[in-house]
Write a structure and sequence with these properties.
5-stranded parallel sheet, alpha/beta, 46% helix, Rossmann fold, single chain, 5 strands, 127 residues, 6 helices
């Protein structure tokens, strides 16, 4: 299965604090793991805002993801246009682009965000 990991999942992976409910998907070699370039941008922005929950070096995060076989998904114009068609449930632009990428690319989003459950996208919620 192809899985797009939301930013929170990526932060858990980097910190080594992944809950068992998420770990099963990450360690399953049958799954192809993707991260969005938007997630790296989110980490850069929120770290610069001194958000304690984003206290990770984005360069190290990016390098670690690549070195561990995660595939990067670039944000495209199709993705950004898709955000305009999404119901206005979730206000966070980073989460909205991940939802749009999931829809456009027909890839399952692995998330811990309960707000995303209200969208018609293929997703797995973990806690």
């Amino acid at each position: 299965m192809k899985l797009l990991l939301d930013t929170n999942i990526l932060l858990w992976v980097a910190a080594g604090t992944l809950p068992k409910s998420a770990e099963q998907y990450i360690i399953d070699s049958a799954n192809d793991l993707f991260f969005s370039s938007a997630s790296i941008w989110e980490v850069v922005i929120k770290r610069n805002l001194n958000r304690h929950d984003f206290d990770v070096d984005p360069h190290l995060l990016y390098r670690g993801l690549i070195e561990n076989g995660y595939e990067q998904m670039q944000v495209t114009a199709d993705h950004t246009l898709m955000t305009g068609t999404l119901p206005n449930i979730h206000k966070d632009p980073f989460d909205r682009i991940l939802l749009a990428q999931s829809l456009c690319e027909k890839i399952t989003l692995l998330t811990s965000d309960k707000k995303m459950l209200d969208y018609p996208v293929p997703l797995i919620h973990v806690g």
